[in-house]
Amino acid sequence: MPIYSKGKDTWRVVIVENGQRKDYVLRGSRKDAMAFEARTRAALEVSGTKVAPSRVAPTFLDFCVDTYRRYAEKGLRESTWKIRQYHVATLLGHLGDRRLTDIDNAVIESFKIARCSSGRSPRTVNAELASLQAILSFARRIGVPCADPKFVFMRAVKSKRAKPWSHEELARLFRAAQSEAPFLVPLLTFLVNTGCRKTEALHVTWEHIDFERGLVRIWPSAEWRPKDDEPREIPMSDTLRTMLESLERRSKYVFPSSEGERYAFWPKRSFDRVREIAGLTGGPHTLRHTFASHFLAAKPDMFLLARILGHGDTSVTRIYSHLLPGHLETARNAVNISPGVAPDKIATGGYAGPRRGGDGQWASRRTTTFVEGELPMPVPIETAVNETLVPVACVDATIPEPKARRTARSTRLRPELAELRRRIEQAEHEQEAGKVAGKRASSEALESAGRVGGALRSLPKTLPANDIGALACARAPRKSPSSRRVTGVDVLGIEPRTSRVRF
């Protein structure tokens, strides 16, 4: 129901009573007008007058205190409301003064940043966001004006795998309980033999114990409901039967407190003291993991385990999948594909940078090491003479060439390669000798180098792989500060390029 301004410090309040609209005009501040509206509505509702709901959104604080709390105390489980109270208290500290229609995406993001800055974990912030989402959904459901923001939860670290206690660790736990808190021994025995949650064990009554059929029933009652409201039955082990038959029935509860009543809370202090004496880490829920571990070791049935543990969705039971005996061994050799080539025939190598092929086009270059006995066909490669790119040959690493052809061509070209090597060495030797004498190399040496370059350019475009080693001698050593060796300009008359590739 709106409140309209009629001028300075004058307000008109509209209330619909029994389907008829009534206007009230009063002087004062807007806060006074809102207070008048609330008093008038309350008086009309007490008198039985049907009043249309207000179209003015309440603040988050007013809605939680006046409306949501009454619903949560009756409509939620007791354990759920106990936890949500802390979330609501935190939300009121950040959003209490905001109206429900003002809680938009920007406000939610600011809340997330503020909580993370205060050191809260993503899981805690997500739990608080889930409570806020539930409150706003309830407001929309009952017709209260409310925003509908998009909730983007934070990425939290996934839960670790369940870590059960071993037989030796359980023995230490029971010895410590027997010496420090004997009343915990029957309770711990029940938990580790049934896999129940701690609240389920504290609410078990003697009428839920069926000795005739050997079952423990986890059923909802007027004062308590199990998680997901799903009743279930758990087989009773021989150890558990013997222990239950030996207990004194001094209350309707199987594990009552010292006053004979149900435990209001889990005896945390006593349990923590026992666990520390035993030198263990974990809580009472670890006994549930321990039950699942020993159950799967004896009977690897995930579906049956989910029914006993009370999991509404079997996906929750997946946290125990790694406890299945040999669960990864069944996947061995499930996919076993062979390349069809003997291991000693497989080529190995790695990427060695770009190259320029025999056709002058740049391409990806791969340095390959070939297994002895396998002679490949030609693919373009090149060598670098100091800073000069010199295409010299082609070698293919994919399709083998017939052996007879490879042998004939290798025999035909080997003398030319040997002569080429001899001439290069002679040119280098004469140039070094000329430097020692204080002169440059003789004109005969330079002419010889020119002839070598001509011979190199006249070589065929393809050579067998066994001749690559012979061609390597065509690469002159790198220039050093102490000496100057023959370069590509001296031998082939090719100007240096800025790019630099070596093989």
How do the strands and helices of this protein lay out in sequence?
Layout: E1 3-7, E2 10-17, E3 20-27, H1 30-46, H2 60-75, H3 78-95, H4 105-117, H5 122-141, H6 167-180, H7 184-194, H8 198-202, E4 209-210, E5 215-218, E6 232-235, H9 238-246, H10 268-278, H11 285-298, H12 302-309, E7 348-356, E8 362-369, E9 380-385, E10 388-394, H13 403-436, H14 443-457, H15 468-471, H16 488-492
Antiparallel strand pairs: 1-2, 2-3, 4-5, 5-6, 7-8, 9-10
By CATH reckoning, the class of the largest domain would read: Mainly Alpha
Q: Secondary-structure element sequence?
A: EEEHHHHHHHHEEEHHHHEEEEHHHH
Tell me what portion of residues adopts beta-strand conformation. Answer: 5-15%
- Assembly category: single chain
Specify the structural class. Answer: alpha+beta
Task: State the end-to-end CA separation.
Answer: 84 Å
Mean pLDDT: 74
Low-confidence stretches: 360-399, 461-503
Structural key phrases:
single chain, 503 residues, alpha+beta, 3-stranded antiparallel sheet, 43% helix, disordered C terminus
